[in-house]
Amino acid sequence: MQLFDLSGRVAVVTGGNGGIGLGMAKGMAAAGATIVVAGRDAAKNSAAVKELVAAGGKAGAIPVDVLEEDSCRALIDQTMKAHGRLDILVNNAGMSIRKQPEQYTRAEWHTVLDSNLTSAFLCSQAAYPAMKQRGGKIINIGSMMSIFGAPFATAYAASKGGMVQMTKSLATAWAKDNIQVNAILPGWIDTALTKRAREQVQGLHDSVLKRTPAARWGVPDDFAGIAVFLAAPASDFVTGATIAVDGGYSSLA
Ligand code: NDP
């Protein structure tokens, strides 16, 4: 269906080499997009490309460290050199340092904010000149911590709350250029990130199960459909929106 067809489009996915990023990449590749897998870990990058290509998709990798401004800019430059266009940017790379707020160093605070929020701003800014040419889609990954807080997640929640407000501002700034900017808020998803969280936060696995109306943890493949929708012409009048993909977690009082 043309509304959901991504043939000929080029999508950069930061952190696309695993977890939620790869789930979204798989969806967009199946809809016809060429995927640029952009993570730090070369082995994970090539394994993800292999998986996408084995499933019949088009994909390549460009290594990036989103903590470095030059690396963010080089990612977009190299994408343009390799493919001549950039249609979709998914700002998905992210991490957390789980500590009580009083134990945070300033450097730790900045690492979380820079990995999750500043990186998304820098990649979006770098992508703007390319996207302006024929319109584009930016998909930012927030979290339940965009709307809730947790004692172990002060910096992470600040970064993910900021992601939602940045999404709205970019959406209003670039609507005139036919660039739509939206945010996805994942619930609790079974990935490497939350494997660590479950090791560090006692009782987390069961409390998530109990609190999630769908009565399960999410999986990366749950993000394939929403990524296609937000990357495709189907969402051309959707901008500045925040969409929870959480099995009902954020709807339960
Ligand atoms: P993963 O740990 O599986 O994925 C994180 C990805 O981010 C990896 O691909 C990693 O690549 C990349 N990454 C981290 N730091 C950098 C960096 N400095 N430069 C480049 N890439 C980087 O976790 P998830 O899939 O769970 O997380 C993906 C996104 O979803 C994150 O933004 C996370 O905050 C968000 N999220 C996850 C939830 C969950 O329950 N899992 C819930 C809500 C939000 P590499 O290893 O190569 O560095």
3D architecture notes:
By secondary structure, this protein is α/β, with parallel strands linked by helices. It has a single domain (2-244), classed as Rossmann fold (3-Layer(aba) Sandwich), CATH 3.40.50. 45% of the residues lie in helices and 14% in strands. The protein has helices spanning 19-30, 42-54, 69-83, 106-132, 154-174, 192-200, 204-211, 224-231; strands at residues 10-14, 34-38, 58-61, 88-91, 136-141, 179-186, 242-245. A seven-stranded parallel beta sheet has the order 3-2-1-4-5-6-7, with helices on both faces. The termini are far apart. The protein binds NADPH dihydro-nicotinamide-adenine-dinucleotide phosphate (NDP). NADPH dihydro-nicotinamide-adenine-dinucleotide phosphate is lined by residues 14-15, 17-21, 39-41, 44, 64-67, 92-95, 115-116, 141, 143, 186, 188-189, 191-194.
Ligands: NADPH dihydro-nicotinamide-adenine-dinucleotide phosphate
Mean pLDDT: 97
Kindly estimate the percentage of residues that lie in beta strands according to DSSP. 5-15%
Strand order of the largest sheet: 3-2-1-4-5-6-7
Query: What would CATH call the class?
Result: Alpha Beta
Radius of gyration: 17 Å
CATH topology name, in short, is Rossmann fold
